[in-house]
Design goal:
The chain is 38% helix and 23% strand. By secondary structure, it is an alpha/beta fold. It is globular, with a radius of gyration of 19 Å. Catalyzes the phosphorylation of pantothenate (Pan), the first step in CoA biosynthesis. Homodimer. It catalyses: (R)-pantothenate + ATP = (R)-4'-phosphopantothenate + ADP + H(+).
């Protein structure tokens, strides 16, 4: 089993995975104030909760979009496993052809998602990752990463709305039963959830028009399960997509 870690701006996803399956997936809050020891304790506690010894970890790999915390988490993993994790970044063998103005600027999480999607689903593919930001990545029929789009995530939009309007409360994102809200909270929730669903549906239509073909649609990320059921398009929900991509990269780059 390898320890696969995806560090995002809001959460750090920590998973145990190998070629036979996924042993666990947990999320902890991304906290710039934590030390390497505190992150080490988090990982150790997660392993213990799932009844897995640290000795079962044969290696580790980290994808990070939070540079100030990258070395902290790398050190935390080494502290409890004795192994230095791989870091997704420039110089790593990916097998992915990135057709962008500057391929080095593409987020590591987007690359990892694309690699996993290409193995699991037929191209062309649109990968929708819903986290702090919502990203939509496009893979053409030849398997090239051709670009995408980024817009504010659900929680960012909702927090911004609540914080800038004195009479609008902070609310949850449980599934709405109808589009037209009957009170302030439902109006806000429906606006965020159905608004994002409609935005995604509309962007899919425009992206497919540019591709000249229908695409396989795959969604992942902590907030995707709240929006995917509200979309008109058939979208596969794969919460473990990024972990699968990290395993592929680990296998491709490990020393024999």
């Amino acid at each position: 089993m390898i320890l696969a870690i995806d560090m995002g701006n809001s959460n750090i996803v920590i998973g145990g995975i190998d070629n036979t399956g996924i042993y666990f997936v947990e999320r902890v809050t991304t906290n710039h104030g934590k030390t390497e020891l505190e992150y080490a304790v988090n990982i150790k506690d997660i392993m213990e909760i799932h009844g897995l010894p640290l000795s079962s970890i044969e290696g580790a790999i980290l994808s990070s979009v939070v540079p100030p915390l990258t070395d902290v988490v790398l050190s935390a993993v080494k502290k409890i496993t004795g192994k230095t994790p791989m870091l997704v970044g420039s110089g790593m063998k990916t097998g992915l052809n990135i057709k962008m103005d500057n391929p080095k600027t593409v987020g590591s999480d987007l690359i990892v998602n694309a690699i996993a999607a290409l193995k699991e689903y037929p191209a062309p593919i649109i990968v929708i990752d819903m986290g702090t930001a919502t990203t939509m990545s496009v893979i053409d029929h030849e398997g090239n990463y051709t670009g995408g789009i980024i817009f504010p995530g659900l929680r960012v939009s909702l927090d911004s709305l609540s914080s800038r309007a004195a009479q609008l409360p902070y609310i949850g994102l449980n599934k709405p039963t109808r589009v037209i809200g009957k009170n302030t909270i439902d109006c806000m929730k429906n606006g965020i959830l159905f608004g994002n669903a409609a935005m995604i549906d509309g962007l899919i239509d425009r992206m497919e028009a540019e591709l000249g073909a229908s695409a396989c649609l795959v969604a992942t990320g902590g907030l995707a399960s709240s929006v995917v059921p509200l979309c008109y398009h058939k979208i596969y929900y794969d919460d473990a997509l990024l972990l699968k991509g990290l395993l592929i990269l680990y296998e491709k780059n490990k020393q024999d």
